[in-house]
Specification:
This protein has 266 residues and is mostly helical. Helices cover 75% and strands 0% of the residues.
Length: 266
């Protein structure tokens, strides 16, 4: 038993210290235990502590806070998406190698991934706003799984794959978040936007397209001759496939089957 624990102990440091990118050791949550702790704390707060604290309280009016938060998200994600696109679009149909050197371009890619990871932590605040407004319907399994999964996966991204083909994710996800937070800002300013089924439907379609593109990129990494680590693609394929299924199920139930049901009962 002692031998097993000793090997696990040394294996842990071998993976997360020796195999990871030393340039990313300065990030806010450099340890895998710290990012797991934050993720579990987030889930406990929004599922247990928050609803219990809000049980006998009216919903908070935090419109101005939300508008400021949305503005920050729009600006940061626009910046991330544009910077990532400058690297990806140099060779959009080819292989983007992973470079752990101190070359200026490699350091710029690390910088993009670093900011992108921290935006995933910022995304968790969005769920806290739902709880403070007692909008519990929006704190769904899909919402929690997506935010938790992205936080953990992007931690692995910045620690082990900080650049190269990974930049497809901040480029596409950053753009999608810009569209999303523009919509959230519009609904905060004018509640009639919430009734725009067409806009919400298009937004879900954009999100689905995002996952399909990233899934395609991951499959290309695994089955092509690209020198980028295939492990990254293998890690992301199950996640993207599952989240695509979840969003696809939501889309069908909300905009296809629900529409047919409404027509049949009309």
């Amino acid at each position: 038993m002692t031998l097993v624990l000793n090997r696990l102990y040394h294996g842990y440091f071998w993976i997360f210290d020796e195999l990871s990118d030393p340039r990313s050791s300065h990030i806010l949550l450099s340890s895998p235990l710290s990012v797991l702790a934050v993720t579990f704390a987030y889930l406990h707060i929004v599922r247990v502590i928050g609803p219990k604290l809000m049980e006998n309280r009216p919903p908070y009016d935090i419109k101005n806070v939300i508008l400021l938060y949305n503005a920050v998200q729009i600006l940061v994600n626009t910046y991330i998406s544009i910077k990532a696109a400058r690297h990806v679009l140099k060779n959009p149909f080819g292989c983007l190698d992973l470079d752990w050197s101190d070359d200026p371009e490699a350091m710029d890619q690390l910088f993009i991934m670093n900011i992108f990871f921290h935006t995933k932590l910022l995304d968790l605040v969005d769920t806290v706003f739902f709880v403070l407004r007692k909008s519990y319907r929006q704190v769904s399994f899909l919402h929690l799984y997506h935010h938790s999964g992205m936080t953990i996966l992007m931690w692995f991204g910045i620690r082990f794959f900080p650049g190269g083909m990974s930049l497809w994710i901040p480029m596409i996800n950053g753009f999608v978040h810009v569209v999303m937070f523009i919509y959230y800002s519009l609904t905060a300013l004018d509640s009639s936007w919430k009734q725009s089924i067409a806009f919400k439907k298009r937004l879900t379609q954009i999100q689905l397209l995002q996952f399909i593109i990233i899934l395609t990129v991951c499959i290309a990494i695994v089955f092509s001759d690209c020198s980028y680590p295939k492990l990254a693609g293998l890690m992301l394929i199950p996640q993207n496939l599952f989240i695509t299924i979840l969003f696809g199920d939501f889309y069908l139930k909300t905009y296809v089957f629900n529409k047919k049901s409404s027509k049949s009962t009309a």
